[in-house]
Amino acid sequence: MVNPHMYYLNKVMSSLFLDTSVPGEERTNFKSIRSITDFWKFMEGPLLEGLYWDSWYNNQQLYNLKNSSRIYYENILLGVPRVRQLKVRNNTCKVYSSFQSLMSECYGKYTSANEDLSNFGLQINTEWRYSTSNTNSPWHWGFLGVYRNGGYIFTLSKSKSETKNKFIDLRLNSWITRGTRVIFIDFSLYNANVNLFCIIRLVAEFPATGGILTSWQFYSVKLLRYVSYYDYFIASCEITFCIFLFVFTTQEVKKIKEFKSAYFKSIWNWLELLLLLLCFVAVSFNTYCNVQIFLLLGELLESTEQYSDFYFLACWHIYYNNIIAITIFFAWIKIFKFISFNKTMSQLSSTLSRCIKDIVGFAIMFFIIFFAYAQLGFLIFGSQVDDFSTFQNSIFAQFRIVLGDFNFAGIQQANPILGPIYFITFIFFVFFVLLNMFLAIINDTYSEVKADYSIGRRPDFELGKMIKQSYKNVLEKFRLKKARKDEDKKTSKGSGDLAEQARREGFDENEIQKAEQMKKWKERLEKKYYSTEIQDDYQPVTQEEFRELFLYAVELEKELHYINLKLNQVMRKVSAL
């Protein structure tokens, strides 16, 4: 779903529309816009020059342009660009009584409740009249708010001169007012060489404090999914994936019916269910995207005189890619389940499973202190340092401090006294104390796991067990080995024969009962501590189990003492001879 061509296409388009400066003013490009004057200079300069080349609109004369750059004739503009503005009403904020004589108007920040829906200005064309949204595109999440669809909209002409006159007319008639809060510039391109659509959105936000904040979105997506032979091979892989998904779902349902509540005691089973859920979501998103592309793409490509809203299709395509990325991530994590044959991997999983409770307790203490410092930094430096301008930024800034990336000069300049105190105490408590406590928890648990492994207590190897079981099943199907049930019957019969043979040879009935009891203890303990079918690697010992272990050890000691006595008797007889 992602290939390097997407990055290169985004890079080319961003360099064209973001880095191109106004002629004669090298520092004025879209990224450096800070005022309404700069915004109109960009609209009448770099944007106009970037959009209006004959190659954008005349598909038959692409290679007849001798002096144009490859950037232009390698891509085709779909439809016409669109400019959209959202405003807020007057009196959406309250002016303090002492200043009402000096300021009669007040325009607050953008919210859906504060949005201005009335006509303004010349009121003759769509750019002066409010238009409701007729698309299903998601709302835009900007720096200063979440912006709805609709607004004061106009589309650009295919003529460069008409569009320039349009911009000049809007600038002279003050299309941008004090109530303006955001302006969107939307258009879409298509590159046939790599079969990619590039959906571009340039955003200029006008905060209530004044100035302009710019942002942008470049989405390179492959909407025409099945064109080449390789694409059809991918389609066959998708069908195979759906078949496997059905098979794995059936297997998990059978396991749940078989083990019931015991099934949910293993973390690997929860991971399996999560993967299946993500796979079903991915299949649903893929189906929905393909249906929408089939229904809308042809209509959008035919509307060459109107704005073609590919933003809706691009967003759903991005959502689908995100779901695929998360699914593949957890699929890689699942590999740990099958590499437990490796001693190091098995120790790692055992260490994490044992210390999870200690880590949770430590995490609560860690984040209490961490959030306390984040709140402290936001309140002290939030108005002057960009890294602490919001509480969220303060949290990320502190994570960067832990990793060694920090701006101590900015902190010190913002507050010469509290700044160094904040920095030194944060480094001491978080970096030197808490992080070392975390490492101590991991190290202590790892030492315990190594000690258990050194005395032979380790879980069954998952992959080796699977291979061994599969090998046995194949032998049983080809009747090269007797079934397990027959072996169990034979074993139980053999154990009974051994008891009868011991009685014939003169062993006491108490000795035979003790031997059978020790055998039962051994089987029960092995089933408890060496079985990993549904249970985790680490199993805590209850009081009753400890009592059984103690009695088992006492019986073993008695047997060892009895064997020593017999051995001493034999040795005395041998020495006498």
UniProtKB/TrEMBL annotation:
> Which Gene Ontology cellular component terms are annotated?
membrane
Gene name, Swiss-Prot/TrEMBL: PKD2L2
Where are the bilayer-spanning segments?
229-249, 270-298, 318-339, 359-381, 421-442
Q: Which InterPro entries match?
A: PKD1_2_channel, PKD_2, Polycystin, Polycystin_dom
Ordered alphabetically, the record's keywords are: Coiled coil, Glycoprotein, Ion channel, Ion transport, Membrane, Transmembrane, Transmembrane helix, Transport
Which Gene Ontology BP annotations are present? Answer: detection of mechanical stimulus
Q: How does it assemble?
A: Interacts with TRPC1 and TRPC5.
Give the organism, scientific name.
Answer: Macaca fascicularis
Q: Which family does the record assign?
A: Belongs to the polycystin family.
User: In this protein, which residues make up the domain named Polycystin cation channel PKD1/PKD2?
Assistant: 225-449
Protein name listed in UniProt? Polycystin-2-like protein 2
Keyword Transmembrane helix appears in the UniProt entry: yes
